[in-house]
Write the structure tokens for this entry.
Amino acid sequence: MHLDAFAFGGDYNPEQWPESVWDSDMELMRRAGITMATVGVFGWAQVQTGPDTFDFGWCDRALDKLAEHGVGVCLATMTASPPPWLARLHPETLPVTAEGTRLWPGGRQHYCPSSPVYREHAVALVERIARRYARHPALRLWHIGNEYGCHVSTCYCDVSAEAFRGWLARRYGDVDGLNEAWSTAFWSQRYTSFDEVLPPRTVPAIPNPAQNLDFQRFSSDAMLECFLLEKDVLRAHTPDVPVTTNLLGLAKSVDFFEWARHQDVISHDSYPDPHRADTHVEVAFNYDLMRSLGGGRPWLLMEQAPSAVNWRDRNAPKAPGQMRLWSYQAVARGSDAVLYFQFRQSRGGAERFHSAIVPHAGPRTRVFREVADLGAELAKLPEVLGSRVRADAALLMDWSSWWALEAESHPATDLSQVDANLAHYRPLWEARITTDIVHPAADLSRYRFVVVPNLYLVDADVAANLIEYVRTGGHLVMSFFSGIVDGNDRVHLGGYPAPFRELLGVHVEEFWPLPPHGAVGLALSDGHHGTGTLWSEWINLEGAEALATFAGGELSGRPAITRRSYGAGVAYYLGTKPDATTMGTLLRKAAAEAGAVPVLPGAPAGVEVTERRTEDGTRFLFLLNHNVFAVPVPVPPGATDAISGRDLGEQVTLDRRGVLIARLP
Amino acid sequence: MHLDAFAFGGDYNPEQWPESVWDSDMELMRRAGITMATVGVFGWAQVQTGPDTFDFGWCDRALDKLAEHGVGVCLATMTASPPPWLARLHPETLPVTAEGTRLWPGGRQHYCPSSPVYREHAVALVERIARRYARHPALRLWHIGNEYGCHVSTCYCDVSAEAFRGWLARRYGDVDGLNEAWSTAFWSQRYTSFDEVLPPRTVPAIPNPAQNLDFQRFSSDAMLECFLLEKDVLRAHTPDVPVTTNLLGLAKSVDFFEWARHQDVISHDSYPDPHRADTHVEVAFNYDLMRSLGGGRPWLLMEQAPSAVNWRDRNAPKAPGQMRLWSYQAVARGSDAVLYFQFRQSRGGAERFHSAIVPHAGPRTRVFREVADLGAELAKLPEVLGSRVRADAALLMDWSSWWALEAESHPATDLSQVDANLAHYRPLWEARITTDIVHPAADLSRYRFVVVPNLYLVDADVAANLIEYVRTGGHLVMSFFSGIVDGNDRVHLGGYPAPFRELLGVHVEEFWPLPPHGAVGLALSDGHHGTGTLWSEWINLEGAEALATFAGGELSGRPAITRRSYGAGVAYYLGTKPDATTMGTLLRKAAAEAGAVPVLPGAPAGVEVTERRTEDGTRFLFLLNHNVFAVPVPVPPGATDAISGRDLGEQVTLDRRGVLIARLP
Amino acid sequence: MHLDAFAFGGDYNPEQWPESVWDSDMELMRRAGITMATVGVFGWAQVQTGPDTFDFGWCDRALDKLAEHGVGVCLATMTASPPPWLARLHPETLPVTAEGTRLWPGGRQHYCPSSPVYREHAVALVERIARRYARHPALRLWHIGNEYGCHVSTCYCDVSAEAFRGWLARRYGDVDGLNEAWSTAFWSQRYTSFDEVLPPRTVPAIPNPAQNLDFQRFSSDAMLECFLLEKDVLRAHTPDVPVTTNLLGLAKSVDFFEWARHQDVISHDSYPDPHRADTHVEVAFNYDLMRSLGGGRPWLLMEQAPSAVNWRDRNAPKAPGQMRLWSYQAVARGSDAVLYFQFRQSRGGAERFHSAIVPHAGPRTRVFREVADLGAELAKLPEVLGSRVRADAALLMDWSSWWALEAESHPATDLSQVDANLAHYRPLWEARITTDIVHPAADLSRYRFVVVPNLYLVDADVAANLIEYVRTGGHLVMSFFSGIVDGNDRVHLGGYPAPFRELLGVHVEEFWPLPPHGAVGLALSDGHHGTGTLWSEWINLEGAEALATFAGGELSGRPAITRRSYGAGVAYYLGTKPDATTMGTLLRKAAAEAGAVPVLPGAPAGVEVTERRTEDGTRFLFLLNHNVFAVPVPVPPGATDAISGRDLGEQVTLDRRGVLIARLP
């Protein structure tokens, strides 16, 4: 997708207001420097008032007005929330929980993703919308559905059951294949026909893990089918208009790597909690993920809040300067858009206390002013558009492994993929080592350093990929409970972690999870001491050296953290969850040894730094001060302020929550 | 309702015992000084054994025996808990939760309030009871249903859905009115027909707030319709016998102000927890509410426990003297009755461990003795009957605002109306400033001081009422998040709190709820320091002066508590929840400035004092020592002990948990 | 059941593996000294692939192979988990929760115990299995079902409702009997026909306690009927092969005393948590219960984990030596078997992380070695087989009383039967006083000392039994809230605890539960001080002396713990839950006074000691060191090490987690 200017603006819902307000909307958009409006995300009930009755008038007029005022439109397919009449005519389109509770209209996203009735109605609507607006001058981008998986990511109804059976039949061919894959010889679960198979509804005891895993795959696929049905319609009408759907941050129910293949441009909704002091690290992770999903191409920050949201227990506003800082964080990590939900704050409905560009009190407000100021700044940065961010390091993650890791009936049941990912990502962020988030089957040869947090599930291809990466010179850090099961959650026999025993030079004989709230000492080979939590294990060395041993408890003196040279590379292994200091030291050393280079070494703590480079080699250094105090930061020689154009000298002072974009020729 | 003596006694359930026990009951009632028995609350299954079969014999004999022994009867309509045969013949009368779970017989109150089948059966039964006992000499009072809303206050079944649609059609006329009121343009919720509307059953995401609010109104009304159907029957048969239903303390699901209009006398069930040290303050609030609901007329303490209840996690008995103290608390705040649940402790059933006047061990027990002693005392206080309590202050509350305040999707979701009410009420109780609890649309001109805790929802009439109150000289304290939405939970546009911006002289630009467990400093203009919790906000002064500013955090230095002279009155505003000391100091100063006068200034802490005044001007001062140690209390000159008749002198010593009723001529 | 050698081995599930693995299984069994394999527990879906299709081939071959290698078989009836095709053909066989949620296949035990369809299919299968294998040379023991009540112990479906009505009709004869028993005069619950009665499905308020109690009895009986239907079939085919089902530890839903009558040998599954430091005391309780259930005859440890389990939040392995120690604990308390779940660790399925004799990594592992070593040791102890353990003390427990005790609507709702039992059992364990766990209606004359923890429900027979026990010289300690209700949860009138007032010499006038987390002081008559938690009460002495009084609070100075000589015996009463020290001192003194003798006085703390005695008088002293350090232990003269045969001298040192079996001639 090519942009002439930053996509700046956001969700615009004129249907919530009398048309008399719209002219004022246009004027305020102009003052705020808005270039793009997302229209119609929840428009279905407004444009289709019954199976055969439509009213597109308001939408025509809104789009015309936007076009007239030079605002581009990201046009939604309006299928995210079906109108009440559909639920009344077809209650079987409503989703059902594992316990059998039907979910009703009154919120949003109340549809069974597998429902043929829902899909028919959705496709027919999209057909109509695409036909109507294919040539509209404001149209820039198609927005399919909305935040797939946000509220309803699985449905256990009979319609879904039928679809699940079909999906399984396609995957396994015959029921013997299913029995083998699901290990149904255990607990008398052998199927004699696909007709007997059901979604993992509430069971008396521990559910079958492979059934659960496949149901999560199926559920992601069922939603993706909805997306693709709509995309096909749009493509037919507008082959040149890019298509996207807005991905949430780390939505467990949606396999982003699978979905990303079908997006013309990656777009993302980001809602960090201002009450959390270190939330920007998790945000950085998500932004890196979005960039990686698009293969490094610029992505779109499709939604963020101008200030507070409305759906947490306590909803803090963004403090002065915080919205600007966090917007530039997206740009710094590859976004060519800064878009908000929403333009004018709703008077009623579930999100009337969600902030907006134009608050209840109108434009004479801090929030409106900060948005408008940012709009003016972004207009001065057209050169940044399309530039790229390069990463030396990669963090591997895989949705199937995530689903399997967090299932029941494990040595420890509170393993969290997100926690593990962030525990490994944070030291890299602190060290300003730019990191991609990539699928473990991806080509890793471009990375100097790879971290593998709790990659529980690996198939043979992935195992081979990682081994080859190290053999040919890569440096890799893998944490415990990786490489344990295959794609159907069946243990790789022969001692843990069977696929990586040789690579790592260890044999894990037994998992030894610590008691809840328990900890174990770590004696490091450099004389330091640390602490492990959550997990320990009985490791036998088979070629590795111990970098740390457990100190105290049943495993006292046995290896806890190991290192092995393998081929031309190095493989580290962590048999516990080390404290943050030990983790940080370890990863920094390993990264340095690997040759992964920090951006702007010497910047003070709490200052995030990334680099975007244009095709012609111009570099933009983004310096983001997350501290609530000012700090001095060294600047490379020859740098200028990309917004003001002034020379920066050798050092600048970043205000609290301050931002500097240094242009390097 | 006119009484010759205190209504003293309580629930009498002779159907639980062989008739051979009843003569002993009469003898024990005599010894305890019992004047009134409530009969038949759960009698339905005992008097009606099938659709067409009845057995009133036991009830006839019980009422005759009571009449013979001079005990008046509060006769229940027996409709609180339908018999099992009704559920078997008509399972559709059973209520259904929002999740779709049907609630079955085995407890009590298992009926859908909207069920026409339930209503027909109830009305037919009441018709039969009213006809049978209309002229019974023991009959004093009708008791309709029981504790409406205690266990089942809402029903989401299809029958309720139909009734809800009818209620909405009457309220809004057409579906466009509904769409406007419910802001259905948000999230694609627009209805094209009332047929599509449902109760707010389980939804995937945040439910529509206006739908929820209307459903709570409808649910209170549906129960009220049940009450009124029965009342109409009773009125037809016994136009002169008063009718009541026993209201719980602060039952969220029942709009007391609406219900009170239909009661001939207000009656109340009070079950404080002896394990909670300050429970008497909440009890005082409830008693003041009951008095206020009846327009200041005496009310009836219809139920309390003689000692322990059975339904908390740990059920403490009332300590020696505590039952007496708390009984006089009711009288002190306007009750002309002291009634208990129940007379004889049940041998079996769900409440066999609920205390009773006659315990399992019989009358040679502490509990029976304390009841009988109190009965003898009350017999010496006939002059108190019918006397009134006068209040200088009022605390405003409104059920619609309560429902709306505690809904989801607010800046902070743990706002509690009861907590807010008590935080404002407690300082007044401590200062012995008698306070009425009144609806915000009521005439406020009789009050010198009005407090408005978190009155989130206000319509134009209420806004005008409060403004006029201050303009004409009233003093008012309003706390944050008041005046935010209209009657359909739609924000009053134009800056918060739009209806009160001028009155208060402030503009709240943004809500700034504190993090969970967080706090913010308060710097008071008098040099003191305090702490705010739960909430803060960005206040712009527009005519008010700051009495306190925030100290620390993003809002440091901005106004936190304000004061404005407006017309002939004064309006205070609280932008946070101050600590108890700050709140107490503020309210005491403001009340004093307003001219709200304490009853008996100079009494020690922990001693509650109220005054009842007869028509002829005799005053009774109730002094209640909630401390567990004795304290000296000053007494007005000329006072005598209303029970013993002795002169009190200048000062008396109140025993731990002691009570004194001082008669002032 | 007669054994030639310890039953050593466990669950063997060859159906989970290719037959090519089976020869290796046989070789590993030989190396581990395995004598018995449990086959087919979850075999249903493997042997019956549809209503009329069977495949017993794999089972034939497995049993033949085991026979060939000299391994006996405990053959399961395979009915514990029905195959998916049954659920599809007969969804009405699936169980339903009180809330109405159906439980689906995917785990195990998904059947309604009352379902005639399930029962017909189960009986037909057992008929076929019994016929096929009645004469198989490997067959040693029948294993019916599996861990009854583990996941599904109650079902609330319409089929269960019908069965419940039949059970009630048989129990009460007519509906008047039911009404009387269930106290239905309370809350209008009177039934006019059994047709109106339902299981205690979700109710709006407190459920009827007698209905709940009878439903728990019915549910235990419904499962027992399943067991007996299968047992009848087996008995017809193999009158001489013993029958058992594996009982869990303290399964609340299964009345062990009722079930034990129908077992030819008691068998037990034991899964202590290695993370809990004192779990061996609870384990000892369960082992004593199993021995007592079998009337003192040897029992079988049917299942334990070789190391970790998979179903806790954090699953710790058994540390080196711990499995051996805990295995001998079972033998020490009367087991003639040490069996494990399972032989080879599953590759897939819900329990793939449950340890096994042969781990994922194979036999070159700590776990396999420790099992094999133990097998070799046990082979040297044939003389122990069939020997008995004698107990001086008894602890009384009754499932009906347990069910009733832990119901809602009590003075305190967090009363726990298991906690109470263990609080009374632990001091006896610490004092090495061997204790049987017996039903309160049992003959107690053989015991010197009886403890009665919270025996809430007692009928007249039990009351008479306990009184007679003390009258004729027994010593008894009873704790609070005992003797309160009859068999239908109706209070014994006349002052608590009515049946025992004379025996104990006390009258409890009021229960006075402490606030949550509250405590009360105890002043002991010997000058010591202690603390009570959970409960206190207002005790009037009527012949007893106070051993302790409450110190502080409303009951300060009133009796807390009492003692009375009654007839030739002594009765103690505890009106609170004393701290562990006070409890220990009290019980040790009382036991000593009663003449209950410790096994091996003088052994250090943390060392468990029991004695098994053969018919010819040979005694085996089991010394088990639960400490994680070595301790010296005195040994009786003439003792030899039963395994090595060496003389032990006067004192031995037990290693950390060490075991010694001393043979005394």
Remarks:
- The CA atoms of residues 458 and 479 of chain C lie 14 Å apart.
- Chain C has three domains: 7-84+114-150+242-380, 393-594, 607-664.
- Chain C touches chain B through 56 residues (CB under 8 Å).
- Chain C has a mean pLDDT of 97.
